[in-house]
Amino acid sequence: MIRRFFIVLSALVLLTLLVGWWVGPGAMERLANRIAPHEPWPVSAEAQRLHEGLVVGDLHADTLLWHRDILERGDRGHVDVPRLLEGNVAIQIFPAVTKAPFGQNYESNTGDSDMIALLVALQGWPEPTRDSLKARALHQAARLHAAERRSPGQLRIVLTRGDLDEVLAARGRGEAVLAAVLATEGSHALDGELAAVAELHQAGFRMMGLHHFFDNRLGGSLHGTEKGGLTPFGRAVVKEMDRLEVMIDVAHSSPAVVEEVLALSQRPIVVSHTGIHSVCPTPRNLDDALLQKVAAGGGLIGIGFWDGAVCDTTPAGVARSIARAIEIVGSRHVALGSDWDGGTEVQMDASELPALTQALLDEGLAEKEIRAVMGGNLARHLRENLPAK
Q: Which of 39, 77, 146, 160 has the fewest CB atoms within 10 Å, counting from its CB?
């Protein structure tokens, strides 16, 4: 009887693991990456025509973290290649998320816990990814490269300025193709090794965030416990990124780190996904004066689509933050930084971006400004800062 009990118990455990393997990742993502229920957003014929003529680009979508095929139109999450192309997106930056603490909040977190480890186990990632954050980044890059090989010409990983120009030229000929750029969500993905900057660069990473929700060896996070500046290791990493022409993203870095990177780096920096503090005064958003310094250095500021960035996640609310950003830093330095698939709830997925073009028109932006913020600025920034070859 006892033996039968343990046989049944073992079978139930195995069944639970199998259900977790196949159902768990999808269920987790449905909870994490939500689209708030809404009626279809109205888009005028004028706005649709304008949108179809734009070069649309977004600075931040965490899609590579999740257990689904990016080439298939999904029934969960915010982004996949079909929905991006349906939304006329030409350029999408895909960061590799490698660690996030449990109970993460905007005010203060330690790096003692690892929520991504649960997804690593549940999604059956390779053995090295259990302990190595660098391995997690490389695994996500490998998944994107594999998708590129499988795609019928619709997905192209951009490594150089020439690559980007080829994709945009193809789109100009009417071809449905997406330029994808690999990034990291925090440089804890280096596993504390300076040489890993070059290793990740070799794997295709062309933008690297310095921090995520906790302090790391490079220095203080906006959401860490210390919120200090760059460490000696952090300064060495910034110099190495400059040497390799890797774009630096300070979206989750402390104000002290942002100030020091602006003084140290020889290249414009990016705040890939954020909001405007004077519109949405949450701890997630850097203050307006610091964003002005980023812009003065030639940098680019991506406006997010989630509540902590804009406080109002409707297309009109996002447009309002974009309009305010233009007032503060100028239209040349504002871009889209959705944070799609980043554990966020939004009110438009990638296919619904014409609604944002409509909202920007309703906000009173000129066509030139709309072309810039919807993707023209990102395309220019990449042309100026990607390696020539």
A: 39
